[in-house]
Fold each of these.
Amino acid sequence: MTGASGLGSLGRVAAQQRLTAEQILQFDKLGSISLLYLTDIHAQLEPIYFREPSVNLGIGESAGQPPHLTDKAFRDYFKIAAGSADAYALTAEDFTQLAKNYGRMGGLDRIATLVKMIRAERGADNVLLLDGGDTWQGSWSSMQTKGQDMVDAMVKLGVDAMVGHWEFTLGADRVKEITDKAPFAFLAQNIRSLEWQEPVFAARKSYEKGGARIDVIGQAMPRTPIANPRWMIPDWEFGLREAELQKEVETARAEGADVVVLLSHNGFDIDKKLAGRVKGIDIILTAHTHDAVPDLVRVGDTVLVGAGSHGKFLARLDIEVRQKKVAGVRYKLMPVFSDAIAPDAEMKALVETIRAPFKAVLSREIARTESLLYRRGNFNGTFDDLICQAMMKERDTELALSPGFRWGGSLLPGDPITFEAIANATAITYPACYRTTMTGEQIKVMLEDVADNIFHPDPYFQAGGDMVRVGGLGYSIDVSKSMGSRITGLTHLASNKPIEAGKSYAISGWASVNQNVEGPPIWEVVEKYLSQVKTVRIEPNSSVRISGT
Amino acid sequence: MAQIKPVASRRQILTGLATAPLLLVIPNLAQATAAAVEAEIKKLYGDKAIGSGKIKLDVPQIAENGLVVPVTVEVESPMTDADYVKAIHVFADGNPLPGVVTYRFTPASGKAAVSFRMRLAATQNIVCVAEMSNGSLHTTKSEVKVTIGGCGG
């Protein structure tokens, strides 16, 4: 195989005004096929700011390996200059300043421009466009239209196939309603009916592109019924289903596939392990963990692609096929700088039409932030700190829990906090903000359980996502320890006293996976809080102390 | 907080937790241990040697629903009069009682394969022992993780 090209020469372009769509698209073409890939858009139709994590720990063999690199270590590994466009797109370093220089990223109208230009360059019959899922969830309009806005936009973009995860939180009936009539394939080899173990979706689809046969196998997020409400998909069973996947690959080869692609929502670390165990996959398009990796990662004869999230990137892989085999793959992770790429007129019009009914609601300004608000990071993010503050105040609790979701845009200091910004961090179909009591022991058990889903040394036991965010609570975590002994020093921050195992604490939270949870939707709680405080200032969070890295 | 609907009952408070109710009651349950499973096997077969192999135990690494965890056990055997599987025993070392189920077979069973669902309140090992018609014993085990879930990326 030939080498990867990474982001190319963008790093040397110092000023944003010198960035052009041509530079972003510049590619030394290879072979007869171009595979385009985008993933985890989380329903962001328009350009946004999205700060990558500054803490993204790898455990065991993953430590210090891509994608578990941040900031300077990330730049050193991929040879990216500080302050460059690449540094802005791929790291959290100096984010506020660089965001002002380089502007928002993403936007489906910009992505449509790139896709159209590549189709024109390569010939539409030689281009395959794949979507890694988490596409229909993450905005107010996607929630209100039950995913229809994103389906319409992705049909317009000309997506050939997709997989799913958050899609399933629309409920089994709605997912089936969409996928039964969609012009794109919705693939999932690892979803079976609970009762009869029959496939719920097609596992695989074949495409003839550039004179070769490409078979795409779909892998849905294997832990969906655990990570998200199982009651919304009561008759479906997920899981990794490695043996069935191996069979599917062999069947594809036996039927004459030249290229086998796994379109996977497993998450990067799981896919890296899987690549060493399931034989015969040429390319794994990873998703779920939102890793933007500017080079291919190789495991044996398999290459892995991490194409980021929120529409920030469009990945291009040129594939050369010789004697019915992949002879070379050339890769570029194209950053979608919204100021450098002209919007595609058709997609722009569609996005405007989609958003028109919600315009008044979305643009309503609730407050302003003086701090950078962001989500990503293994243990905390300022946006989650804000949500925890809102829950503790509005639900009158001493502690709060907020899920470690990796989606949701960032806001720069000075930005208005609109209802859209709140919705981008909270729009889910199980939004109840509950109030309850938990004993100190229950809190400890819960934190241990979540930590094990993130820091288990075996990737097959990891579920993706980040650590549950806590409000009013401090703790120490040794990520190298095993389940039950990672969390120590639980502290009730208001009183600066240790959390007592037998004592009960009033606690609020949202996104419970249980059915019939009571409480107002989280966006109402956050809006009510913000409308009172008006100005948000979040101090750096030092209540989680990390060791064992 | 007049606009915010109060939580109605204690039951709903509990189901509203991000924590599965099952997990919350675990500390009050008497649990079997690996030693209890061993003792149970000893009760059945004394100090007889137990080999590995022959048994294919298929359980999820992580249970999607701890209340109904699918378990499939298959023991390799020609199932003839001369050579067949007499029994399959299943144990769980986190169950209140270690013995879960015993299946008995004859050559007329055709094959020694069973599928069932069991309730697991917490992460634990599922242990299988197969008794063959010549008296030999085989065992295998597999851990099933039961997690409270939530917080998916």
Note: The longest strand of chain A covers residues 325-335.
Amino acid sequence: MEINDQSGDERKLACSDVTKCFQLLESILDGEMGETGQELMKEKLAKCQPCFEHFHLEQAIRDVLKTKCTKQAVPTELARSIRQMIQESK
Amino acid sequence: MSEVQRRKYSQEEKTAIFDGEFMPHIDSMYNFAFRLTFDEDDAKDLVQDTYMKAFRFINSFEKGTNAKAWLFRILKNSFINEYRKKSKQPTKVDYQEVETFYNSDDVDYQSTSDLRAESVKDMLGDEISNALNALAVDFRTVIILADLEGFTYEEMAKILDIPIGTVRSRLHRARNLLKEQLKGYAQSMGYNTNEEEED
């Protein structure tokens, strides 16, 4: 039997199948698992500390990429020059 | 893939598809191109070329299907076939090398990273962008497609011409490499990446 640490919220401190769990969590975070994914995830996160930490790190990384990555302003004349090139090629 | 159905759009239809389905993606296309080339002029040329090709081959586009993925695929192929060859600075890691070096199903899922979610959240846009830009182009690409543009694994598989399993593992590796970059920033900023709290 595994060591049962009393960390406030009864999560296992070691994950017995990191590869499977992390891969699953990443797929869920990438929106690949639909509704069933959400349930599975809740279950995992409640029970396993490494999964919990991995999930939050992976989620943070996706969030900052989505929200903070500097966006390049599209040159104003680009759309116009594309239309012009198309027009000329007709 | 089924063979491309021959259909002919009228001039009006072509214009409608081009304006209604292709042009709205110019923003994402330009940003993708810029993140591949790191150069405004090259990015502009790449986007222009892509739209020219899209127009020329518009009959092979099925109205109402995923125009953005279709365009991204053209852009990525143009980049590989033309710009990458032209580029003065050879890419640090070549596609094939990456595949041979990393191509195994034994993706390392051990959590070696002691990077913390809190430090990641505190990072600045420039730090995130620089970390992303520091990745080899194939890794950079999957992150752009997944996280910045929100493509699904299936769409990415089509854009990149690779199996879904490869999309998943390449994305995982890409994010691990990104974590390594971010960890560097976190440490240099004095964020806590390990055990001790310091103030």
Note: Residues 49-68 of chain A form the longest helix (20 residues).
